[in-house]
């Protein structure tokens, strides 16, 4: 019994020591303090009960003591979980604080995927993902130009986010359970609903992915694409040989020069690559979509405030389209009596406080970057060379699945 008591005292001493050097916020510290106090008081009762049991050695005394020991063990469990779930904060600056101090946000983008993130002829980054980085900068810093773009390959992207090299990753990246958990990142939403497809040479006479038996398939490593490809063919017992490349450039080049019969990636990217061919009609994008590829911005798991800023920047762009508020009309909308519009542009609550931002943060997103539709059409839609239709990326009112939770 003495051993049990010593053991539990040792554990609580250890957690006392640890609580002095962790990063818990005020609420978590209060919870931890109250659990520690409870443990201490129970330990005192336990010690008294143990002494009494040694003197009387009754059954009820032993049962009482066992109940107390169980209670101590359960509280210690709660204490451990309170400590591990306590968010990172206040000994090191939050992502928002660091970004404000630096004067810009660090945005991880692709090494160059037209429509999503690629440098134009003047060397300026553009695309749907790039504009989302700009929207977050407008929300957080008040200026959409305050972004440092950091091009990342498929293999580098998650390490760059985990290590703090980038503040957010907006890089045609698919939201999956594994990435959301094991990789220590959180996806803040979906800015493009995609799916995986195949592309073949038009003269190959192939009209469907099921006709790819025995084919060589060019694919980029470190992607969901590689995994879906294996699932699709293995499940259907179709033989294939993956030809795996580390970069997009090599993958496309492999397909162009005939290293493989088909190329597979997100369908949006296939349309981009098709347009980059000397004769786009010489290749055919097959009709099948073999997976869901919801692409979205991801942040590290250690900063809920930053997660919320990124999530609600995206929600703001979607709501703005929903409510008919654009970069052009947003100033006029300041006169609106519509409570939804007034909340959207921060004239009425909940405003910016909960996110640690100025009250005009959402106005700046819409004014400087625009609503979701403006950004989509400019980068991948009808005003861009890609001419991607809205399809599932239309808002829920227009038959798509773009939908944001209430801004109130
Ligand atoms: N959405 C998939 C695939 C993303 C991906 O990286 N696709 C390649 C093929 S188009 C790409 O964007 N390459 C550009 C680059 O490597 O910078 C994922 O998240 O794994």
As for the number of domains, it is 3
Specify the CATH architecture of the largest domain. 3-Layer(aba) Sandwich
Number of helices: 14
Small molecules bound in the structure, each named once: glutathione
Percent of residues in beta strands? 5-15%
Radius of gyration: 27 Å
Give the strand line-up of the largest sheet: 10-9-11-8-12
Percent helix:
40-55%
Order of helices and strands: HHHHEEEHEHEHEEEEHEHEHEEEHHHH
Note the overall shape.
Answer: globular
User: What is the CATH H-level superfamily of the largest domain?
Assistant: Periplasmic binding protein-like II
Category by helix and strand content: alpha/beta
* Count of beta strands: 14
Q: Can you tell me about this structure?
A:
The chain is of the alpha/beta class. The radius of gyration is 27 Å and the shape is globular. 44% of the residues lie in helices and 13% in strands. Strands 10-9-11-8-12 form a five-stranded mixed beta sheet, sandwiched between helices. Strand 9 (215-220), helix 8 (224-235) and strand 10 (240-245) form a beta-alpha-beta unit. Mean pLDDT is 85; it is low at 1-35, 39-44, 46-58 and 75-89. The relative contact order is 0.11. The protein folds into three domains: 2-85; 95-193 and 295-398, Periplasmic binding protein-like II (D-Maltodextrin-Binding Protein, domain 2, 3-Layer(aba) Sandwich); 197-287, Periplasmic binding protein-like II (D-Maltodextrin-Binding Protein, domain 2), CATH 3.40.190.10. Glutathione (GSH) is lined by residues 110-113, 153-154, 172-174, 220, 223-225, 247-248, 265-266, 269, 293, 295.
